[in-house]
Amino acid sequence: MSNETFDFNAFIQESKEVLVNPKSYFSTMKTSGGMTEPLIKAVIYGAIAGAIAFVWSLLKLGSIGGGLLGGGIGIMVFIGYIIGSIIGLFIGAVVIMIISSICKGSTDFEANVRVTSALMVVLPISAFLAFTGHFSLYLGVAIGLAVNAFYLWLLYNALIEALKAKPETTKIVMYILIAIIVIFSIVGLGAKRKANQFMNEFKSSEFKEMMEKKK
Question: Residue by residue, what is the 3-state secondary structure of 113-159?
Answer without folding.
Answer: HHHHHHHCCHHHHHHHHHHHHHHCHHHHHHHHHHHHHHHHHHHHHHH
